[in-house]
Amino acid sequence: MKKGPLLAALAVAAATAQAQAQSPEITARLVSAFPENQFYVKRTIDWIEKLNKEGQGTLQINFIGGPKAIPTFEVGNAVKTGVVDMGFSTGAFYTNVMPEADILKLSETSAAEQRKNGGYDLINKIWAEKANMRYLAKVVEFTPFHLYLNKKIDKPDLTGLKIRITPVYREFFQAMGASVMTTAPGEVYTALERGVIDGYGWPIHALFDLNWQEKTKYRVDPGFYNAEVSLIMNLDKYKALPAKARQYLDEQALAYEKQNDFWKSYNENEKKRQAEAGIQTISFDAATAKAYVERAKEIGWAAAIKSSPQYGPQLRKVLAH
Ligand code: 173
After folding, report:
1. Which residues have CB under 6 Å of ligand 1?
2. Which of 128, 120, 92 has the alpha carbon at shortest distance from 257?
3. Distance (Å, whole) CA 36 – CA 229
4. Distances (CA, A) of 16 to 57, 186, 277
5. CA of 232 to the centre of ligand 1 (A)
6. Residue 248 CB contacts under 8 Å (≥ 6 apart), including other chains
7. How far is the CA of 227 from the centre of ligand 1 (A)?
8. For a substitution probing ligand 1, which of 43, 166, 207, 212 has the most ligand atoms within 8 Å of its CB?
9. pLDDT tens digits, 239-293
10. How far apart are alpha carbons 304 and 170 in whole angstroms?
């Protein structure tokens, strides 16, 4: 017998209700610590759109916005306390939650290697214990930081210069004699425009997203450390996800992380773009360059271990070569 439309509709409604009772669709709210006009965020929004399309009935992510919704340095706390469910951030922005957050910049092993060598599990142990967070995936890596300047230097000496930092660069730049000022990315352009700072720390890429090339004369080579940007989630929310939603989220986050090779070619291109925009490079001779990078690393690990005597040494084993 052919079902009438009413019966068919009732059958669909009943099936839907049953599916929802078994495993309701979950919505997670995500904020970005980086400004919305940054390419990172656009990439993440693309990822969210795909996740939402394929995750209907299972999991949806609701992108709330960038620092206008929650200030850059507050995103970590918002995720920790569950004010939002998910964050898109770098660890340097939530050292106010735990000092360990900034240690991932010292990674020499890749995220893929850390999934195998116990690094990912250790990170999740620490993030759970100290920040009430799940570290889902690292989605920016293979990206050095650089010092950008508007005054010329001929050696690694920043005496008399005021440099914009985040915790990433603090100890290293101070050791070179800089006076430092912490700001969120969203405040750098104005600080440059007003001459409040003589330079800043920032990755090799993403200068153009915020128009800083207009106010930047020099990039100092070589770069140092390894920029880390990741997706984090409130641990209670993560644990409360139905198994299917959690598995789907883990898979999607891992698929995003697996695209990280993208940054290698992107970064080469960004270097060219900087040169074309008139940003000159200040390069040290080979011996000075080597000492510069080694010093950054030594100072970075000394600070990491001082800030976390408990986990600094354990992280070193899985992050450093
Ligand atoms: O300089 C910064 O704002 C910063 O710490 C950072 C970290 C990772 C990616 C981009 C910026």
Report:
1. 90, 92, 166, 168, 185, 201-203, 227, 229
2. 120
3. 15
4. 9, 45, 56
5. 16
6. 51, 55, 58, 59
7. 7
8. 166
9. 999 999 999 999 999 999 999 999 999 999 999 999 999 999 999 999 999 999 9
10. 12
